[in-house]
């Protein structure tokens, strides 16, 4: 898939024998760029993620991200429309063509709520959480973990349907660590690929003999739920102040009180944010709890103290 490419003229390019117009730049990261394209044939908008591959290892990582997208066809996991690898002026780039979601990320929605001095209604939190859990459950059932779940990696479409994105940090859910060298390898990898303020405690100081599993995602999921409730992650302030996140995650997360959300939602959040991974639930259990809370949740719940 995706070996055909030409930049036909300024402002237009071809991927997989289909032409697209370049509209504008959307985002820029350390080693990637995201551009907005419009399909010439279908008139739809797409996001083109261009990953700079400086070496063979980076190219392999981009290839892995492509393969992760291709593994899943799920309404809550962002699909891959097309891809190709491009060599431009001696440098290799991976191009991933993705559907464009105009509403943006969950984080951008939370920022807007914060700016307005508003909050997210409980029913909306549960609706979004249900979709995230559905996508995550599918990933876990296939034996993988996302490893970098955070509000900026969840897109929301016009119906508030969440889509998990940025699958570049995904790997096998179960990692058996045998010895200090392997532990340091996993720890270094996590430091590079798993965002610090959403990273599970067991990934900060990896023990010499242990098993890392999909419950790293449950911790991150708890951080996402907290951010929907309080419009910032539980460790965002710790990180911003320059204090030790590694130390902070060893303690139980305290839910700010008074809290206007239901006891059920607060209890669910607490169950996910347990520093010992063995005591965290599986995503299937979380999904069941969310479904139960949705049946009991009031229709209006807009104000937080």
Question: Can you give a write-up of this model?
Answer:
This protein has 305 residues and is of the alpha+beta class. The protein has 2 domains: 5-99, 2-Layer Sandwich (Phosphorylase Kinase, domain 1), CATH 3.30.200; 106-296, Transferase(Phosphotransferase), domain 1 (Orthogonal Bundle), CATH 1.10.510. 36% of the residues lie in helices and 23% in strands. It has 9 helices and 13 strands. A 7-stranded antiparallel beta sheet has the order 1-2-3-4-5-7-6. Strand 9 (154-156) and strand 10 (162-164) form a beta hairpin. The longest helix is centred in the middle third of the chain and has 20 residues, at 122-141. It starts with a strand and ends in a 9-residue tail after the last helix. The model is unreliable at 1-9 and 300-305 (pLDDT under 50).
Shape: globular
Overall mean confidence score, pLDDT: 91
Largest sheet: 7 strands, antiparallel
Q: What low-confidence regions span 5 or more consecutive residues with pLDDT below 50?
A: 1-9, 300-305
Helix content: 25-40%
Give the CATH H-level superfamily of the largest domain: Transferase(Phosphotransferase) domain 1
Organism: Merluccius polli (Benguela hake)
Pfam family, one: Pkinase
Domain Protein kinase: 20-304
GO molecular function: ATP binding; protein serine/threonine kinase activity
């Amino acid at each position: 898939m995706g070996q055909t490419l030409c930049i036909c003229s300024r402002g237009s390019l071809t991927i997989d024998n289909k032409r697209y117009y370049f509209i504008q730049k959307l985002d820029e990261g350390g080693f990637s760029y995201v551009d907005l394209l419009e399909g010439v044939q279908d008139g739809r908008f797409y996001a083109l993620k261009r990953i700079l591959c400086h070496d063979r290892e980076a190219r392999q990582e981009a290839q892995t991200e492509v393969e992760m997208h291709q593994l899943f066809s799920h309404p809550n996991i962002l699909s891959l429309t097309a891809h190709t690898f491009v060599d431009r002026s001696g440098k290799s780039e991976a191009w991933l063509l993705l559907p464009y979601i105009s509403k943006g990320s969950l984080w951008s929605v939370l920022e807007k709520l914060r700016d307005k001095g508003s909050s997210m209604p409980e029913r909306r939190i549960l609706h979004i959480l249900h979709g995230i859990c559905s996508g995550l459950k599918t990933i876990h059932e296939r034996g993988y973990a996302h490893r970098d779940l955070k509000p900026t990696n969840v897109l929301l479409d016009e119906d508030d349907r969440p889509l998990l994105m940025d699958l570049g940090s995904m790997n096998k859910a179960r990692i058996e660590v045998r010895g200090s060298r392997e532990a340091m390898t996993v720890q270094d990898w996590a430091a590079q690929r798993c965002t610090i303020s959403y990273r599970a405690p067991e990934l900060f100081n990896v023990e010499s003999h242990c098993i890392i599993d999909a419950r790293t995602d449950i911790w991150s999921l708890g951080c996402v739920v907290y951010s929907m409730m309080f419009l910032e992650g539980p460790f965002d302030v710790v990180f911003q102040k320059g204090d030790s996140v590694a130390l902070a995650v060893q303690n139980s997360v305290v839910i700010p009180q008074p809290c206007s959300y239901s006891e059920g939602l607060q209890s669910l959040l607490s169950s996910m944010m347990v520093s010992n991974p063995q005591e965290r639930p599986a995503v299937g259990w979380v999904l069941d709890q969310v479904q139960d809370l949705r049946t009991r949740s009031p229709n209006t719940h807009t104000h937080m103290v």
